[in-house]
Structures are given as structure tokens and as C-alpha cells.
Amino acid sequence: MGLPGASGYGSKSTGEEVTEGVSLSCNLTAIITGATSGIGAETARVLAKRGVKLVIPARDIKRAVEVKKIILRESPQAEIIIMEMDLSSFDSIQTFCSNFISLGLPLNILINNAGKYNQRLDLSGDKFEMTFATNYLGHYLLTELLLEKMVQTASTTGIEGRIINLSSVVHSWVGRGGFQFCNMLNPKEYNGTLVYAQSKLANILHAKEIARQLRERKVKVTANAVHPGIVNTGIIRDYKGLITDLTFFLVSRLLKSIPQGASTTCYAALSSQMIGVSGRYLADCNDRICSNLAEDEKEAQKLWEETHALIQKRLVSQSYCA
């Protein structure tokens, strides 16, 4: 219905509206994955308009350059750095993080926005199911490699760091029996919609576990997950082949626009109402209840430990091969 919630915003709010009047006391630096199209590109545009320095990791450099040009036409003062990264590749993520840290920039905001949906089974270069590798594993590794930079930045500047994981309401479609780590890495039977939902559940659990760890360390960095709404983006178009054109036409009338879809991410990144808020699941710029499984702290810790062990084993193996 678009009615505002406790924050004063609702499903009809846009990224520009929820950040209007935001006053940045100093220059902030944000990394946004998946910023070459859709919600990510709109998030980048809004943050640049508000004075945030952007770092855009991209596999498609040509497309990233086009997005940069579009943003600069509206905000000529914007600072935008484009760097190469393939989120489905551990090697590529490591290289990006090393290159970013060598720049000597602070890091205030990390937006794990990129999302992928595959109708058919496809494997990443690391031999993991592509949707899970891109949506969850890649963002896990990216966050781990950049976390100490964020902690250091927050400690030095006194400004709260913010990690934002893009999730989806479809996380609630996953039951406990359908959330087995090994099977998600290499599913025996492939269901693209279920795999996508599993990756979105993992994004919430990841945000909640990182938030818990950061609270224990008493550092000034928060982590939250957001549901952007059902937005008419490339991922929705990938679903079109699974439903009739008529159904798609009818459903598309109910979808959010891209500016509306970017609102909760922008709100979580810049709003003063989010100071100190961590480990939450947001939708329409308001706190929302997620599934029981997504709220399970033990499940979040277990997933973090399994992922940590997997990545450490893979990275050690790669170092030996090198």
C-alpha cells in the first residue's frame, strides 16, 4: 500500500527520498557490488549524489564505465573508482581486496548487493554452484578480507562502519531440511528458485553472525540484511521464462521501481536512524521479522564456521598450487 512505517518511510519511498537532508560530516567511502545495473547502479547514483566516494568492483568494466559516466553527468563532483572483480572467483576477490587496500583509502560502507539467478545448474571457476558462489560465498570472502579495514576506519575516524547484505523475502521459502551446506555447494538435484532462496537466507544469517561477532569485539561497525522488495530488474526478467507472459504482465504491475527498490539499502547505508542498529532484517526502510530459520543464532554460527573452513581450505590449497 506504500504506507510509511515507524521510520517514516514505506514501500513507495525512493533512495533519494530516504537520504534527503543527509548531512555527511566527512567524506565516506563505499564499496558496492553489482553496481553496474539495477538496484546497485541506483544505489551508487544516490550515494554519489550525497557525497560518498564510490568504489565499484565489476566484472564488466565497460558497463561500469558507462554507469560512472551517467552518475558524473548528474553529480560532476562525484569520486568513482572502478576496479575489476569477479564475485564468483576467490582469486579475483583476493586480488581486488589487495588492490583496494593498497590504495590507502578508508572504508566506511560495504554494500553486498550483487545477485545472480540461474535457471540451470552452472559451476563457478572454483567448482561451486554459481548462484550460491556469487550471492553468498563471494560476499562472505569479500567481507572477511575487508572487515579489518572497516574496523580500523571506524576506530580512526569515530564514524560507524556499515555492512549491508542484500537478501530477499524468498529466504522464507527454505526449510531447515533444505539448508544443507554441502548440498548447496553442489546440489544433487537442481532447482534454480530454491538455490536462489537458499543464497538469500545465507545472506541474512551471514549479516546476523557478523553483527554478533562485531558486538562481542565492541567495535563501531554494524551489519544488517535488507529486502529491497520485488523489483523489476534483470533477476526478475530471468524468471520470466518460468511463467506465462500474461502472468508476468500482471505481476509486473505490482513490482517496485528501481529507485524504490534501492531505498532500503540507501536508508541502511546513510540514515541517522540506523546508528547502532545491527543484526536486523529490513524491508521498506523498516525493521521486519524474518523466518525462524533466519533468526536461528546457532544456524548462523554453523554456516559461518562451515564457510570459513571451506574458504580457508581452498585458499591454502591454491597457495600450495601456486
Structure, explained:
This protein has about 325 residues and is α/β, with parallel strands linked by helices. It is about 50% helix and about 10% strand. It has twelve helices and eight strands. It has an eight-stranded mixed sheet, sandwiched between helices. Helix 4 (about 90-100) runs parallel beside helix 5 (about 130-155) and helix 5 (about 130-155) packs parallel to helix 7. The longest helix has 28 residues, at about 130-155. The chain starts with 14 loop residues before the first helix and ends with a helix. The mean pLDDT is about 90.
At a glance:
By secondary structure, the protein is α/β, with parallel strands linked by helices.
Strand order of the largest sheet: 3-2-1-4-5-6-7-8
**Structural class of the helices, strands and pairings?**
alpha/beta
SS elements, strand count: 8
Shape: globular
| Amino- and carboxy-terminal Cα gap | 56 Å
Count of separate DSSP helical elements: 12
In which range does the helix fraction lie? 40-55%
User: Secondary-structure element order, as H and E?
Assistant: HEHEHEHEHEHHEHHHHEEH
How many whole angstroms does the radius of gyration measure? Answer: 18 Å
Residue-averaged pLDDT: 92
The percentage of residues in β strands lies in 5-15%
Q: What about the largest sheet?
A: 8 strands, mixed
Features:
322 residues; alpha/beta; 8-stranded mixed beta sheet; 8 strands; globular
Strand-helix topology:
Blueprint: H1 15-19, E1 29-32, H2 38-49, E2 53-58, H3 61-74, E3 80-84, H4 90-102, E4 109-112, H5 130-157, E5 161-166, H6 181-185, H7 192-217, E6 221-227, H8 234-239, H9 245-252, H10 258-261, H11 263-270, E7 281-283, E8 286-287, H12 297-321
Helix pairs in contact: 2-3, 4-5, 5-7, 7-12
